[in-house]
Fold this protein.
Amino acid sequence: MPLHMTKIAFSSESPDTLRAWLESHGPLGEARLTTRYLPKRVAEMAGGSLYWIHAHMIVGRSPIIGFEPTPEGRHWIRLEPRLIAVQGRPKRAHQGWRYMEGKDAPADLGADSDGAGQLPPAMLGELARLGLV
C-alpha cells in the first residue's frame, strides 16, 4: 500500500474553491505546492495521494505525480490537477504536511455513496464527532 500525505487546504474557502484551484492547473498537466523539505519517505509515496483537510475534515485527495526541486532550493509536490471526493473524516489541524498510512486513508466517494460527502464540512465534522456518520 502506498504512503499518503495530509495537508491543510490553506486559504481555500471551501472544497469547491480548492477543486477550482486544482482544475485551473489542468492545462499545465499538474498542480504544484512548495515545501521546504523533501519527505524522507518519498520512495514509499509512489502511487500515493495528498489528502486535503478543510475545516478539520479530510474532504478529498489529489494523486501525487512526484517531487521536484525548485530553483530556490525547496521542493515541489507535483499533483494531478483534480480533487477526488472521499468519505469525510475528522482531522486535527497541523502545520505543513503529515504522512498517512494507506490503511488509514478514507475511501473515495463513489456512485454507491450515502451522500455524506455532499454535506458542508462543518456539519459533517459535527456529525462525525457525535458518531452519526
Observations:
- The first strand starts at residue 4 and ends at 8.
- Residues 63 and 121 are 21 Å apart (CA to CA).
- The helical segments are 15-23, 121-129.
